[in-house]
Amino acid sequence: MNFNLKNVSVVISAFFLSSYSGYLSAADLLNANEQQQLNQINQAYQSQYQATRIDDKNNQLNELNANVESAKIKLVNNFDIVSTDTQALQSKIQQGEFDQQLSEHLRQVAQTIANLKQQVSSSLAQIDVLEREISDSRSEIIQLDRTKSDALVELYDDIKQRYIRSAQQVYNDDYQGQLQCDVTESISVCVNRNLSSMRNAFMLSKGGLDRVKLTQFKVVDATQKLSGDLVYSVSASYQLVYSPNIEMELRKTLGLDKIRFVLRSNSSDTVFYIGDERIGSGETVNVSGDYVGLYNVKAVNNGKVQSLRLTLENDGDYYFPFSNPGHSKSSATTAKRTNVTQSERKARPVTSKTSGSSTTAAVTHSQPKTVQIQPTHVDQSGKVIEPEPVVTTSATQQDAEKSASVKPLSGSYSNQVLYKDPSFTFILPQSSNADGKTPAALSFAQAKQYCEEKLSSRLLSKAGFQYINLYVDIPQGNYWMSDGKLYSSERHDEVAKDSNNNQFVCMVNLTK
């Protein structure tokens, strides 16, 4: 027999398409009344969610935090200006001169510092209010989620019962189909060879192989043309099966594929992990997600670890107690960028101490001495900690004079803007070579000279790197900081010096 492969391919294609798409559509799973109920539940939730204004509040909070960080950078920059100009004014006074213009400039800088302090204080006060409001809004949203989930579960149970009742009924139907047989074979031979395909075609027409269970399938008539085409009629009885696949697709359509549960501890310092993913910290953490199967849930508290293998369930409550739990909290953390979702956008304040650049100036006395201005700090509340001058021996001055003799820059350089805000432009110098452009690597003195002479700017401080790291990915490598130490863009922190030539970023002040 020469079986028609073209006809087989059509049947097989129809089989795969229908078996996978027969129950994926919401229109196939839900009737009109059920679809209307689902729309009403979703619309009610969306309306109540928008009423909390949590997204607007999070946007405002992020903007305020960015303003605070920018103001802190400006404070550090202005303290550097004060240090430099004060030393210059002091030197002129000691020479019997008084620079009125320089004095007036210092007065303006002092006013700028006062305004920046007020800006930081005002923004922090607004942040405190917003964080409380956002916390309240999140509590409201958690309750909205539970209300919506309860309504969806109730709808799911009703639909499931409809499917179960339908599965208990037996349906009778007549069906007509067509086959292409070889002209040399009889009708009975062709029908018997293709009986399985005929059954599948009927089941696909009723919703899919997973949804139909045949109780009777009888060919009652068949007619074959001279071309070999065969038309047949079938009398069939069947039941609609409520299969695990249908249940899974139904839960997915209703948005019930995610489960919600709570992780609890007796310490606010507890950090929770599911697998290797950090979920949250505190005494209570609400979690939702697509968690199917066994998971390793871990709670860590001041070096103590509790770990359990759990099958996470909807509305589950999992408690991890610790004996003598610690409540110490780190006084400073380094700000890092986070992935932001629509309803859980979080503020990212830099709470680490912010250090500025240091400058060295010679003061005329009976014996040459050097006054080194220590790095300026801005603490978590936005309060500026004034620098204390430290008098060192003239050896430091000799080192400074030695570093002043800088090797001339050679080669071709270009500048890439890493990030720009209303007050500063952060520039990454690049060198050109046969392989293209790569971040320029120079000695500390050369890097400082490049920023000052070519861009009228200064090297970036650690606080500056932490600031721009909130918004952009800094290319891999070690970078000179304004104090001559190194910052690693991979570790997001200070690292030990292992090379005399390193990359650097120049900070251009746009407000001068």
Automatic annotation (TrEMBL):
Residues 323-378 are annotated as: Disordered. It comes from the Bacteria. The keyword Coiled coil applies. Residues 325-342, 367-378 have a biased composition (Polar residues). Residues 113-147 form a coiled coil. Keywords: Coiled coil, Plasmid, Signal. Residues 1-26 form the signal peptide. Residues 350-366 have a biased composition (Low complexity). Transmembrane segments: none annotated. This is Chromosome partitioning protein ParA. The lineage of its organism: Bacteria, Pseudomonadati, Pseudomonadota, Gammaproteobacteria, Vibrionales.
